[in-house]
Amino acid sequence: MEKVITCPFCEPQLDSEQRIVFENEYCRYLQHPSHQTILEGSGLIVPKIHRQTVFDLTAEEWAATYELMQQVKAYADEHYEPDGYTLGWNVGEASNQSIQHAHFHILLRFADEPYAGKGIRAWFKSEENRRPGR
């Protein structure tokens, strides 16, 4: 008998800790408190229909993602008062996409955190990230 693997973003209700904070016709904004103990208030926007990467989204899903992003920002500004945001998509294993369902990270950033002032470019531009022989 073949084992059925369920996608945690297609069926968020299967994880009792995962919360659907907002949703619209095409997307959901999810938070998982035990996954965000350090990244307080952060979460993910995911399309309701399984799409492997951001490159697979429809125009309607893009628009719905934008709509939710604005709603999330207003909510986060009111409830968490972050000093900034880091936003992003990971695509493929080399980019650390561990769940093969498109998901847009909304990470709240605070001036008093140890990595304040360092965005994604800080890691990508570090000498330690140089490809061998380049």
Write out the strand line-up for the largest beta sheet, numbering strands in chain order: 1-2-3-5-4
Q: List SSEs in N-to-C order.
A: EEEHEEH
Shape: globular
Helix content: 10-25%
What amount of the residues lies in strands?
Answer: 15-25%
Would you write up a description of this structure?
By secondary structure, the chain is of the alpha+beta class. 19% of the residues lie in helices and 20% in strands. It is built from two helices and five strands, in the order βββαββα. A five-stranded antiparallel beta sheet has the order 1-2-3-5-4, covered by helices on one side. The longest helix is centred in the middle third of the chain and has 21 residues, at 59-79. The radius of gyration is 16 Å and the shape is globular. The termini are far apart.
Q: Summary?
A:
It is built from 2 helices and 5 strands, in the order βββαββα. By secondary structure, the protein is an alpha+beta fold.
What's the topology here?
Layout: E1 19-23, E2 27-31, E3 43-47, H1 59-79, E4 84-89, E5 104-109, H2 120-124
Antiparallel strand pairs: 1-2, 2-3, 3-5, 4-5
Keywords:
alpha+beta; 5 strands; 19% helix; 20% strand; globular
